[in-house]
Amino acid sequence: MASPSQLVGQTISHYRVIERLGGGGMGVVYKAEDLKLGRFVALKFLPDEVASDPQALSRFQREARAASALNHPNICTIHEIGESDGRTFIVMEFLDGMTLKHRIAGRPLEVELLLDLGIEIAEGLDAAHSEGIVHRDIKPANIFITKRRHAKILDFGLAKVTAGRKLEPAGGLSAPTMESSAEHLTSPGIAVGTIAYMSPEQVRAKELDARTDLFSLGTVLYEMGTGTLPFRGDSSAEIFDAILNRAPVPPLRLNPELPLKLEDVVQKALDKDRDLRYQSAAELRSDLKRILRDSNSTHVSQADQRITGPVSRQKLVTVLIAGFCVLAVTIVSILIFRLWKSDSTLPRTHSLQVVQLTNSGACKHAAISPDGKYAAYVEENAGKQGIWIRQIAAASSVQIAPASEDDYLGLTFSPDGTSIYLVRHDKPEEGAIWNLYQMPIFGGTQRRVLRDIDSLIGFSPDRSQIAFVRSFIGDKVSGDNLVLANLDGTGERTITTMKWPKGAFAQGGAPAWFDDGHSIAVGSLKLGSAGDSGYVTGYIGSFNVSDGHGQTLSSYPWRLVSHVALLPGSAQMLVRARDNETPLSKLWLLDSQGGGVRRITNDLNDYDDLSFSPDSKQLVTVQKNLLSTLWLVSAAGSRPITAGTGKRDGIPSVAWAADGRILYHSFNDVWMTSPAGLTSSQLIPGNATKVGPMSVSRDGRVIVFSSGGQIWKMDADGNNKKQLTNGGSDTDPQISADGKVIVYCSFRHSTPTLWKMTVDGTESSALTELRPLTAYTSISPDGRFAAFWSNYRGTYAGRLAVIQLQDGSQLKTFEARPWVSPVFRAPLGWTPDGHAITYVVTRNGVSNLWNQPVDGSSPKQLTKFTSDLIFDFAWSPDGKQLVLSRGNQTRDAVLITNFQ
Q1: H/E run at residue 782
Q2: pTM of the model as a whole
Q3: Which H or E run includes 128?
Q4: pLDDT (tens digit per residue) in 470-499
């Protein structure tokens, strides 16, 4: 038989070869006439140089088998596989047009064509994936665009079967084909893949599934929208590094004509973690269809949707879904309205309206622009945080700062709306140093304005100054300064200094200027001192800009105030605060002149951040929902022992009773269950005594706990409660195994300190001069030592410290660092044999337990969970089991209206 280069004019089987259409390293394609059926077809042959290669032939045959198993308008149809004179060929449908590679040619496609083609490619992949076939080589050269502008997927030569069929022999190829173009860094004859379109799991040579095709499709969509590749470099190593470690330039920066929402689709498809990527081609296709629909000028927005005549089934479904969402929001709003406290002192007005702005569950901070058109937010994924901006009306988002390991304290729009001020750690591992940066609203260079601040900033009414809080930590006295500066960070001036224990500004929220520019309001907290009856109480202070003179604006019994915001032209103030009724932070409305208070939110969610439009009609905040269940871990494995929607089992603490049962919190209640988890009984109702973190003696006779800033004890059945301290600022007690000594954290003096006392409360004294970083402490089983997270050199970096319980002298410190959970605890505990200290390590949003041997040897990982956080844990007395509180916190930005 003639070689492929000599086939024109020849008849192969019953096909007359007419012309050569094209070819590459793994195939030469000809146009031919089917002499039996009188139609045009395409014949594909292996090139001469690889025709005798068994591996290439296997791939060639696999392509025919895989594609012939599929029948879809967006997949090139395979008619048959044949052989003539010892040379194998594939007969395919003849397609008139060009490959997507040649259609792009370094230029972005028009948006409508991009969406049409993207939808069809996704539909073709969905059909293949539904048959258990993964393409593994999606790229523009393998996608054909017909003259009628339809997409056809080509070249299933590397298709992998994941279920249902057997199309490839064992040991089949796992890497994509090589493309001959130098721009994609390939080498002819080496089947290692078209590097630029590989998924991270392909780069790492991991087992592949359908999600690898979706990453490759995301790369193709990026190239279709921008005319360039998302991951580029001058060598294969650089491209590999980009795919694995670097975020691509946002497509909108390269092509501003793209819909904002399309960038969301591309970013999700290109997520390096395949668990966070699109999970199916159908899901990706639906999002593309939605963008196409919304880009149509005849589309009616959801906010103003009306049915004016006959509608299609798809539109009817869309309307029904939108209606359901509106109904759900309405129901929630009504429930919130009815749950407002009956003792509120401000009049109620309209029903609260809540609209969710993000749905990732990973939003940390949010702010609204002065014109109310945009919301900026920080999103955290896989341990990295990036900044996004969303058009509120269009429901479209674009990333303006790439994800990094920097930690953000919050965002603030400039008064003119042209830039965003952000407070972040440059290097979180170096301690609690936050810096202020300014960046353009749609991304760009970040300019540092201030170094070492501990709050967001508040702009003066004349827009000439900013106010912020800067904390200081000393050996004997700590506190906060309220500071003013010019917009460029120059001209710093301290207005007033607050020292503990008299009071301390709550870090995080922004100082709020009054309209006259003469005073500034700051959310603050009081730390109880000896003789005080309260624990940590929150209040709002107003400070004169000229002389720093302060006064209290409200005496409402908040436990913590962390954000305040004054409504322009009004005496009303928005407050984020926590009271004694719930451990959750809620939003409140305060009359700064009369002191009247009304709670705005009273659902089962926590709230963070306060940002509103100048007309005071729109409020953006972050709504947080913390859920957890109890898990039992043993040598046999791990399993949940409680379940249920909306629960917070094991927060803030879990403990073992002497009879082998488990005590745990669920909101303010204390429950008891067996390790089997079959039934749970309530030990203490939260409305009877608000029980904080607790500890149980080894014999199970005594339970110690904190409540209202005091240390208490009670019997195992919940009876005979007795108050042990009167400090007003004591928490997290731990009782020794013999039940004779209690160690706890106290805030009664200038800095947090560890104290110990006898179980009857008669003898109490400071234990050590080392300052604890968190309140959590653990006593060794033999009662000789205490372990805790110590503050390291005046920073919040932390070290694991072990001290002598008798005299508080330091014994050892370890480099292990704490993870502080969303409920502000860093649990640790001695193993029952006393040989190691167990603690939580959280990486990329996943918690696991580790052991630090007290002999100083390297720590060892105990659990290997791949999802969720650990909030607390406890060893069983025999050391054979662990009970964990595991779960997660979803955080999304919401828009609230009608809150006044």
Answers
A1: none
A2: 0.56
A3: helix 111-130
A4: 877 655 556 788 999 999 999 999 998 876
